[in-house]
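This part of the workshop introduces the protein records we will be handling. Getting from the letters to the tokens is the skill we practise here. An example says more than a description, so a record of this kind follows:
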Amino acid sequence: MCPNPSVDTFMKIDAFKPSAVNRALSEEHYPGGKGVHVALAIAEYGEQVCLLGFWGGPTGSWIKQQCIAQGVECVGPVLTQLNRFCITINQPGSFNETELLGTGPLIQKEHLDECYKVFESKLSEASIVVVSGSLPPQCPVDFYHNLIKRAHVRGRKCLIDTTGEVLKVALDAKPFGVHLNEQESQQATGTSDIKGIVERLGDQITLKIITQGAKGLFFAKYGDMLHANVALDKVFSTVGSGDCLMAGVAIAICKGYDNKKTAKLAVAFGAANCLRKELGMLFKKDIESLIPQVVVNKPSVQYG
């Protein structure tokens, strides 16, 4: 599920100057939004995926076309207002990225009603549900909470990747798993200590994934905690790495992988995204080559 798709724009600028005119050296456009990245990664790996979103105007049509061309089924309400633009500004010669994230179209009650209806109609075909990203304007804060509750009625596991009040409300619906990066985990729990983060998320969340960028991820499930990471020689961009990681987790759960194998696949997916210049995308061949390189350890501090 991606309620707030975007056109991701990647601009290279010689030297960004605040409060001045900045002219891009180059400009590229990609289908974006956290849930879009998840769906594209799953499709690239050869698995069937359906993407539910709010598709707004010409930008929404373009995003859908790009996803469909890469094997993603796209469903959901069509809106008049445009989907948002998200701009990543890169300065050559240094790994320095600035992101400007748009807001998205206004969501009306009729759009919500249609979305819930489509969601429930697709649950019978789903093995797992992933809900990812920010909510567009006027989308209620309990939107993800409501989706998770509907999925539970059909016996479907849900993974969530979002922030702030939306995350707080959604966690009350007891999703199966949650992914948070270093900053998000501290905001959600009030601590930067990994053991503390996991414990404060509570037993109602079975799977907790805490990512720390180049330092890898912590994977906690049923009292078992693992740390996994892989070294990369070159990074094009980290935009979408957490989303691709979630795709790997979803696939691993559907295939019944154990904790170690799931953590390895998740890291390989996230790292593969860094090796492809298109934002939020990856190549299956990179995933396959990275899996054997992922190092998984038991951290000295466990929980439970």
